[in-house]
């Protein structure tokens, strides 16, 4: 009877997302957990009893995504945290986490920096798209701010006007906690051209009231294709900001502080 009524992996996933994740993870991490659970964990393990999940099951799901090692490792990480919590809830024997000893795949760190010529080409493309109205003006502003501040995408997407204080952004919560981002004249010029909406606190506003722009990947793919930069990711703009600082002779501690 205990075995018959024991929860499935799918049920534990939902409990994990509703009870454990909200109080312990940032919104971006919550979204990543949800994505891993819905796309990779539930389809493979969802119907299994959580107490029956063995190391071989974990090894199989990890091996199935060996061609995308980053994703395989992230899914393994989510499973490990969730099955640890299942032990805390008394749903598995203590010390039985089957993720132990499943070795992560080696990840090749990808570094891509835009050259001065590529940055100029991207800037020119943004100017053309702004003039013709072919692309969202807010997406264009967001990309310019990413280039000129070295911020992470989430930091610009969730930036509020109250965080803009003089020549700096005072971000109350970033990946590394609260921080200040110093703004040069070009970044201040971009901010001065963005319309403030009385009913929306965000700088890069979304379509719904009081929301921010959530989809930057689709406009970015169109923009990078137009600029002939098909291999450049949004995060590479942050790399390029750091690379530009290196080229200007800034010290590594200074670059670290800027980032």
Report on this structure.
This protein has 259 residues and is mostly helical. It is built from 12 helices and 3 strands, in the order ααααααααβββαααα. Strands 1-2-3 form a 3-stranded antiparallel β-sheet, with no helix packed on it. Helix 2 packs antiparallel against helix 3, helix 3 (27-45) packs across helix 5 and helix 4 (55-64) runs antiparallel to helix 5 (69-88). The radius of gyration is 22 Å and the shape is elongated. 25% of the residues are buried. The model has no long low-confidence stretch (mean pLDDT 92).
Secondary-structure class? mainly alpha
- Care to count the β-strands? 3
Number of helices: 12
Distance between the amino and carboxyl termini: 56 Å
Tag the structure with descriptive keywords.
single chain; 259 residues; 3-stranded antiparallel beta sheet; elongated
Describe the structure concisely.
This protein is mainly α. Helices cover 53% and strands 6% of the residues. The protein contains twelve helices and three strands.
Strand and helix map with partners:
Layout: H1 2-5, H2 9-20, H3 27-45, H4 55-64, H5 69-88, H6 116-132, H7 137-149, H8 153-157, E1 164-165, E2 168-174, E3 177-182, H9 185-192, H10 217-226, H11 235-247, H12 252-258
Antiparallel strand pairs: 1-2, 2-3
């Amino acid at each position: 009877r205990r075995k018959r009524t024991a929860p499935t992996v799918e049920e534990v996933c939902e409990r994990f997302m509703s009870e454990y994740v909200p109080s312990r993870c940032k919104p971006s991490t919550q979204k990543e957990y949800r994505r891993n659970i819905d796309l990779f964990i539930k389809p493979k393990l969802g119907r299994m009893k959580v107490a029956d999940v063995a190391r071989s099951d974990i090894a199989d799901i990890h091996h199935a995504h060996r061609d995308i090692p980053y994703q395989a490792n992230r899914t393994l990480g989510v499973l490990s945290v969730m099955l640890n919590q299942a032990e805390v809830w008394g749903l598995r024997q203590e010390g039985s986490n089957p993720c132990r000893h499943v070795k992560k795949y080696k990840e090749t760190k990808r570094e891509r920096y835009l050259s001065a010529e590529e940055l100029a080409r991207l800037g020119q493309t943004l100017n053309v798209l702004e003039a013709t109205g072919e692309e969202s003006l807010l997406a264009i502003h967001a990309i310019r701010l990413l280039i000129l501040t070295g911020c992470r995408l989430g930091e610009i997407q969730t930036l509020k006007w109250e965080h803009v204080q003089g020549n700096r952004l005072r971000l109350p919560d970033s990946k590394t906690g609260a921080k200040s981002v110093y703004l040069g004249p070009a970044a201040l010029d971009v901010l001065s051209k963005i319309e403030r909406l009385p009913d929306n606190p965000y700088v890069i506003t979304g379509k719904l009231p009081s929301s921010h722009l959530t989809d930057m990947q689709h406009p970015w793919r169109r923009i990078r294709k137009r600029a002939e930069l098909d291999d450049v990711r949004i995060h590479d703009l942050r790399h390029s900001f750091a690379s530009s600082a290196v080229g200007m002779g800034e010290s590594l501690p200074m670059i670290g502080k800027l980032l």
